[in-house]
């Protein structure tokens, strides 16, 4: 792709120059053969010219071709860091997160992976943090400063119940508040936003036969996020054999709920991931960081062409002076 492709028409002129040079060489060769006096021919052309005598002209013609391409403004697709986007990381801190099926525990592994995600995320991204159990709390509003995020992650405490829908609504409110705060300063509107939700279990608050479909349920929240243009990427973290001890000597199974997490992602337009170890969780966060932190854009690639054209020009002029003490 080129920004100014009409400059490429000059390549026709360059091709004509190359053809003219070849024709000129043939004409000179034909004129030399007309000399019938071999002694005079030996004086005019005592030996067959070497190939390198064509280097100056070839280099200058190639330089003109390369510089013409540079003038046309060549472009290529490239991954470039985003300088504006909002991400809210939502972490489940319900009691099931104390399960040790993920070493050393689900919560400890989630904390370590979340801090790594914060460190690896592109510096220009505004990152916020929401935690949830029976209720949801915005711990850090979106900011480019990663230290408050990591301190808040270190301070996460477990609590009862799982209000996934409330967590999504809280994250959406955090995005909206932040977007309104910077709307006046951004001429092109609020930055794109995404919610990254990590949970290990099924929603329990609100209750009912189908809690996800309640007005404050997770599926209702996912639909609202889709309507607001904020996809929710979900991570189902843990295993099917996890358990915790609530009462002494009594183990309660806390298997992951992949189905509801997948449904949340699909309803909101986000992506669904699973992770059963800390390493897998880190890999998921790394993949999300690549998707969120970078975007594919068409960038100008004319600089290498300009440099190459200038180098060929120097070679052409320099070799012309060295070989014939004149320009080609």
UniProtKB/TrEMBL annotation:
Residue stretches spanning the membrane: 6-25, 55-73, 305-324
PANTHER family named in the record: LEUCINE ZIPPER PROTEIN 4, SPORE GERMINATION PROTEIN
A Pfam family that the UniProt record links to this protein: BatA
Keyword Membrane set for record: yes
Gene3D superfamilies xref list: von Willebrand factor, type A domain
Highest taxon of source: Bacteria
Protein name: VWA domain-containing protein
Keywords: Cell membrane, Membrane, Transmembrane, Transmembrane helix
InterPro entries in the cross-refs: Aerotolerance_reg_N, UPF0353/GerABKA_families, VWF_A, vWFA_dom_sf
VWFA domain boundaries: 86-288
Keyword Cell membrane: yes
């Amino acid at each position: 792709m080129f920004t100014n492709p009409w400059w490429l028409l000059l390549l026709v002129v360059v091709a004509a120059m190359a053809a003219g040079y070849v024709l000129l060489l043939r004409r000179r060769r034909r004129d030399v053969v007309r000399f019938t006096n071999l002694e005079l021919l030996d004086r005019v052309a005592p030996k067959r010219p070497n190939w390198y005598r064509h280097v100056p002209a070839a280099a200058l013609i190639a330089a003109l071709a390369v510089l013409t391409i540079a003038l046309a403004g060549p472009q290529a697709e490239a991954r470039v860091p985003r300088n504006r986007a909002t991400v809210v990381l939502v972490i489940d801190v319900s009691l099931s997160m104390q399960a040790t099926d993920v070493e050393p525990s689900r919560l400890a592994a989630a904390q370590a992976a979340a801090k790594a995600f914060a460190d690896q995320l592109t510096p220009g991204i505004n990152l916020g943090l929401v935690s949830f159990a029976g209720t949801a709390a915005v711990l850090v509003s979106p900011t480019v400063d990663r230290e408050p995020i990591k301190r808040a992650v270190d301070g996460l405490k477990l609590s009862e119940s799982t209000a996934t829908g409330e967590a999504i609504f809280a994250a959406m409110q955090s995005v909206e508040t932040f977007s309104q705060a910077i709307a006046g300063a951004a001429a092109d509107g609020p930055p794109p936003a995404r919610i990254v939700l990590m949970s290990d279990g099924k929603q329990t608050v609100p209750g009912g036969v189908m809690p996800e479909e309640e007005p404050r349920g997770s599926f209702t929240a996912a639909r609202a996020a889709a309507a607001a243009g904020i996809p929710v990427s979900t991570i189902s973290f843990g295993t099917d054999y996890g358990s915790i001890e609530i009462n002494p000597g009594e183990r309660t199974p806390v298997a992951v709920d992949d189905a509801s997490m997948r449904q949340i992602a699909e309803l909101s337009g986000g992506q669904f991931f699973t992770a059963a170890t800390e390493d897998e969780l880190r890999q998921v966060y790394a993949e999300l960081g690549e998707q969120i932190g970078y975007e594919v854009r068409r960038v100008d690639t004319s600089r290498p062409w300009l440099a190459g054209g200038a180098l060929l020009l120097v070679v052409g002029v320099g070799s012309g002076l060295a070989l014939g003490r004149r320009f080609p």
